[in-house]
Amino acid sequence: MGYDTQVARALRPPSRAPFVLVGVLMAAASFGGYRLYQELQKAKNEARAATEKAAADVAAATASQKELSDKVEKLEAEKADLVSAKEDLSKQVEAKSGELAQLKGTYDKLEEKMKDEIAKGDISLSQDGGRLRVGLVDKILFESGEAAISKRGEEVLAKVGAVLATIDDKQIQVSGHTDKTPISEKLAPQFPSNWELSAARATNVVRFLSEKAGVPPQRLVASGYAEYHPIANNKTAAGRARNRRIEILLTPSLAPKAIDKVKLTAVAEKTKSADPEPKPKAKSKR
Length: 286
Description:
Blueprint: H1 5-11, H2 17-113, H3 115-120, E1 123-128, E2 131-137, H4 151-164, E3 170-177, H5 194-211, E4 220-224, H6 237-243, E5 245-252, H7 261-274
Parallel strand pairs: 3-4
Antiparallel strand pairs: 1-2, 2-5, 3-5
Helix pairs in contact: 2-4, 4-5
């Protein structure tokens, strides 16, 4: 018996092609979605990396700018310090030049007043490094073996003191020196050694300069060196005569100059105005 074609067609299992097609389409859609997700994540990561790099670049630029600003500020401060140091140095040079000029003026005055004694070799003058040294052999100031100033010595010291009294920024050291000859038995009770003789002579010169010549006593210093600072050979009579001497050394004053009262008040007011207002004390809690 023959089959009905329509029945046979109805009884035939349905084709799988549509399901396969749908599966393929779904798989393609899933793969496309996954690829899209990957691209999206990649784009996000790149955007995040770019943002972080930009932030790092900004931070680096800010740090570099701060470093440059600090360098500029440091260089400006160093420049200001150099300008200040240059000004101070100029002032010091100017002051030193004025001091040397004044010292040269004192040298010239002494040279003029003592030209006869200098010509005879009784007085010597030397100037070096901002210091002025006056050397006087003992015979024009003292009798042999004596510490008291002779009449001739007073005349000589009066002329020297007239110049020294006009100087207000120098310390004046008067030092006594002897030769190496020991003190005689006759003088030993008064001067046990050359120390006492040299110190006594220096002290008497200082007293004369202060009391008779008007040199301010606060600028005078007396010292005795005995025979221990010779300037010539003690083995010869001429050398010993040179070693027996009084030296007057002018050096920069170590004592600070008195500050003018008006200037001192102005400095105090300026300091007071620069100080911040005192903060009120916090009340203690109990």
